[in-house]
Design brief:
The chain has about 260 residues and is α+β, with helices and mostly antiparallel strands. It contains eight helices and 15 strands. A hairpin with a 4-residue loop joins β8 and β9. The chain starts with a strand and ends with a helix.
């Protein structure tokens, strides 16, 4: 596993050194340790991710999430709107504003963080199977291109913890759209018989990123299954109603001026 544990107090986060080494960003994949992300009574509040805000050195209101709906909409976040986008129905966020962390919440779906060192700009993407076949990953890459002139071949991606193929069994209502969306579907799905398939959703999104123009060497993954590692992560498929992890990324303050 290519990851570091870092955090604030007793609440560790996972990071990927290949991203952190750039020095111009902060990022984190939270765990369930110390009750982080437990989501008491299922109610979301702006203080849910105070530990992440503290680790990033920002206020809790600057950790920005949206209302995820398994769609393909991408929200652009900036200094003018960051307090207002939380109710938006979307599954990806992009920003070039330093000191604003964009994040997605997951408990089996694939979280992906994107970083354009040249912009600089960042993105956070929530990719369940529906969003994946709708092209959310490619649309997030294009959003960075259109908004900030980002070059996909220079982008760096980090794939966080998600349900692995050993625990993710799907049927034809999933496989049908997957076959239509991805010519490489045989590389990510294996038949288990009786119309059931094992699906590697993280690899599906890795290949989608490569198809969008990212270089394979710039795509990194924690490679950890949320269902297998319920000691460390929440898993909706394994537990039913449960908490959420946050995958967040932020440009450090000062980075925009340094690059422009």
């Amino acid at each position: 596993m290519n990851a570091d544990k870092r955090g604030s107090g007793s609440e560790p986060f996972l990071t990927i050194p290949a991203l952190e080494q750039h020095g111009t960003i902060r990022h984190a994949f939270t765990t369930r340790l110390a009750g982080l992300g437990l989501r008491h009574s299922g109610i979301r509040t702006s203080a849910d991710w105070q530990a992440v805000a503290d680790a990033f050195g920002i206020g809790a209101d600057r950790v920005v999430t949206v209302r995820q709906v398994h769609g393909d909409d991408v929200v652009t976040v900036n200094e003018r709107n960051f307090r207002d986008v939380r109710p938006c129905a979307a599954d990806a966020l992009v920003t070039d504003a330093p000191g604003i962390a964009v994040g997605v919440e997951t408990a089996d779906c694939v979280p992906v963080l994107l970083f354009d060192p040249a912009g600089p700009a960042v993105a956070a993407v929530h990719a369940g199977w529906r969003s994946t076949v709708k092209g959310i990953m490619q649309k997030a890459v294009r959003a960075l291109q259109h908004a900030y002139g980002s070059d996909p071949s220079a982008m760096v991606a980090a794939i966080g913890p998600a349900v692995g193929p050993e625990c993710y069994e799907v049927d034809e209502p999933v496989m049908g759209p997957l076959r239509e969306a991805f010519p490489f579907w045989r590389e990510v799905a294996a038949s288990r018989g009786n119309g059931r398939w094992s699906l590697d959703l993280a690899r599906t999104n890795r290949l989608a990123l490569a198809a969008a123009g990212l270089r394979e060497r710039n795509i990194h993954s924690l490679g950890m299954c949320t269902s297998c590692r319920r000691d460390l992560f929440y898993s909706f498929r394994a537990e039913g109603r449960t908490g959420r992890m946050l995958s967040a990324i932020m440009l450090r303050t000062g980075t925009t001026d340094e690059h422009r």
